[in-house]
Amino acid sequence: MRHVLAGMNRLGGLWLLLGLAAVLVLPWYKVAAPHTGEGVALWGSAAGQVLAGRIWLLPPVLAMLAFSLVRLRSDERWQSHPSILWIAGAAAGLFLLQAFAIGLRGPAFDAVGQVFPLATMGQPGLGLGGFLFGIAITGIIADALAARGFCRGERFAANAVIFVVALLSLFVFFPILRLGGAALFTPEGVFQPGVFVTRFTAPDLWGLGCFVGQGRCGVVINTLILGISSGVLSTLLGLALALLVARTGFRFKGALRAISILPIITPPFVVGVAIIVLFGRTGLVTGWLEYLFDIPRTRWIYGLPGILLAQVLAFAPITFLVLLGTIEAINPTLEEASKTLGAKPLKTFQSVTWPLLRPGLAAAFLLAFIESLADFGNPIVLGGGYDVLSIRIFFAVVGARYDLGNAAVLSIILLSLTLGAFWLQTRWLGRKSYVTITGKSDAGLVAPLPGPLKGAAYAAVVPWVVFTLGVYAIILIGGIVNDVGRWDLTPTFRHLLTAFSLEIGPDGVQFFGSAWNSLHTTLLVSAIAAPLTTAIGILTAWLISRQDFAGKRSFEFGTMLSFAVPGTVVGVSYVAAFNVPPVDITGTMAILVICFMFRNMPVGLRAGIAALSQIDRSMEEASQTMGANGLSTLRTVVLPLIRPAIFTSMVYAFVTAMTAVSAVIFLVSARHNMATAYIMGRVENGEYALAIAYSAVLMLIMIASIALIGLLIGKRQLGRRTQLQNTAPALPTA
Questions:
Q1: Is the peptide bond before 506 cis (omega within 30 degrees of 0)?
Q2: Would you say residue 115 has pLDDT above 50?
């Protein structure tokens, strides 16, 4: 037996042991007994329930016993046995059918075998045994596919692909399908497929009146105008920031990086409130303009200009982080060769640097465009009469007339816009190669930014910095004065004490502030979600960029689905999918972590793809030639070269979990409340100062966290980049 165990493949043995524990030991269902609330324990395993007469659980038990028998009788790798894939596929199919499609019939039982009618409880949810069986059967299927040549037989890659597909299916496709089915039902719950066409072709969605001077455009057209404008402006501003940091001798790069981070770490609603305080009808800047230049007060900030201003402020830092990694990855030898051949700096940038920036530009625009389409906080505060899809979906769900079907149709339209942008990005990049990093040493120094481009970058960045500082001055002041909205600037700390009061006594520290509970939950959820989001995003990027497998293009499209759907719809779909068995996790911390993972995963994915597109595969091939497997190559070769992408993903995942509101507003509970839900409640109650004070505390926490993330990840070093070569070295004189 010891010889058998020693010869077992470690990964395959892990899946087999998990599966056996799932069907023989662990409780299969999460059933609470009446009056006690305790779950099944004694006879809760699948095998125990089969012995008690519940034969629908026989397939999982038989499958695991069959795998064990094949493993013991086979001298070769047992996953390659011809019967394994068929048995695993049949067991997985029956498991899904039983868990998601067939309601249980008959009595359920508690820990000591006492029976009580299932009708009093409904369909029970899966317990630990059921979930572990799903994990084990997925791993066994992945190993069996790898044994048949999937992912060229690389077991780690095959397991990664299959598990990512399984996770996306459960936590992205399944909720959306549950919500999408509502598009075929009337508000009264009557199945009527024709209602989809009526909703999809509604005149208020596709009107073009704003282009011909006949009123307003439809909601879809408004959303496209806003998304394209926000994407273009955010990408250009992010490029200007990245060029100043990476290609000039700008002295205050650290300060510029810090300022560019501020919009990312700002909770929703607060920037909108600050913009209103500055540019609203009674705003500070509005009053100065009237006093100095006799410019009348107007409500210009409400509508497209205000939303666009807030979105560019919020999304430019995201594009900056993506483009900075792309610029730093460009091999300076190429630009130096162009200079040696006599090209001027502007020509070198146009013919060498700009084409190599295309993957980063495409990724940055796509992220900003999708973020604009999914944005909820800025349009609801500054929208005025400018209607967009995210707001229309929100009010379709929480408005006076609950219409989940209409929200589903609008979500399908929004998803179509996102997929269209993704297709255009793919066409623009084409099949050209953007590799600049190879295993060869480079002897080049980065080329300085041409004078005209440097002037244009300063002209774009300086006003943005001034505007950003003004907005955040309002945010910082607003938390320590009586009422910044009415310009009552009397200093006070009562808002902070209301949220974060505490006492130190004989019994230790006691927290009395109303915000402590939400802050604790937010920090814990963010700390768990950020590394998990980064791991799955970067891993998926590596699979797409470096592995060849059937269905790769569909796999890539599927990974963007969660980012394409507005957060409001994500929250509603999660409630619809996970508020009932078999996966009933609504109200738990797990659903918050899962929501953030798959909502923010595409940021790390796109940043990782942009970084990997510039790294030659020869270094990874050399590692594999030396005997390293896929996991070792990824860990020792790839990850150190894409640290900027890892930093981007980690920072974005953490701060988004700290500041997101549109998705989690439907998922928080009294036990697990989030900071943004607390802030939203204060804004709705008119307690702007308390909301701003809490937001300022969150920003300080996130600044410290971002610095810590940067220290943990470190910096990537490529070539001789210790100094910037602004001028040619002086020639020695005789």
A1: no
A2: no
pLDDT at 62: 92
Rg (the chain; Cα; Å)? 28
What are the structure tokens assigned to 470, written together? 């003004």
Query: What's the CATH class of domain 482-713?
Result: mainly alpha
Query: DSSP assignment of 70-86, as one string?
Result: HHHH-SS-GGGSHHHHH
- The answer to whether 223-386+418-469 and 482-713 have equal CATH topology is yes
- How many percent of the chain have pLDDT more than 70? 86
Provide the 3-class DSSP secondary structure of residue 510. Answer: strand
For the domain spanning 223-386+418-469, the CATH number is 1.10.3720.10
- Average pLDDT for the chain: 79
Distances, alpha carbon 322 to alpha carbons 238, 329, 644, 647, 678, in Å: 8, 11, 8, 10, 31
pLDDT digits 0-9 by tens, 178-199: 877 778 887 777 788 888 888 8
The pTM of this model reads: 0.75
Helix, coil or strand: residue 326: helix
pLDDT at site 119:
32
- Residue whose pair of structure tokens reads 């009446």 in the numeric block: 34
Full DSSP string of 536-587: HHHHHHHHHHH---TTHHHHHHHHTHHHHS-HHHHHHHHHHHHSSSSS--TT
CB 513 within 8 A of CB 580: no
The strand pairing partners of 98, in sequence order, are none
- The residue count for the chain: 734
Neighbour-count burial for 627-655, b at 16+ CB within 10 Å, e otherwise: ebebeebbeebbbebbbbbbbbbbbbbbb
> Between 482 and 364, where is the model more confident?
364
Q: Could you state, in order of their start, the residue ranges of all structural domains in the chain?
A: 2-148, 223-386+418-469, 482-713
Residue 201 DSSP SS3: coil
pLDDT digits (tens, 9 = 90+) for 535-546: 999 999 889 888
What pLDDT was estimated at residue 732? 43
Does pLDDT of 586 surpass 70? yes
The rounded distance, in Å, linking the Cα atoms of 380 and 353 is: 40
* Overall average pLDDT of the 386-396 stretch: 85
Contacts of 654 (CB under 8 A, 6+ apart): 526, 527, 529, 530, 702, 705, 706, 709
Backbone angles phi, psi at 495, to 5 degrees: -65, -45
Between CA 466 and CA 459 the distance in angstroms is 12
The alpha-helical segments, DSSP class H, found in 579-687 are 589-612, 618-625, 630-633, 639-641, 643-659, 675-684
Residue 84 burial class via C-beta count within 10 angstroms: exposed 0-12, middle 13-18, buried 19 and up: buried
The string of pLDDT tens digits covering residues 202-220 is 888 898 888 877 778 899 9
- From 592, 638, 64, 680, select the one nearest 380 (Cα to Cα): 680
How high is the pLDDT of residue 109? 36
Could you tell me whether strands 29-30 and 502-505 are parallel, antiparallel, or unpaired per DSSP bridges? unpaired
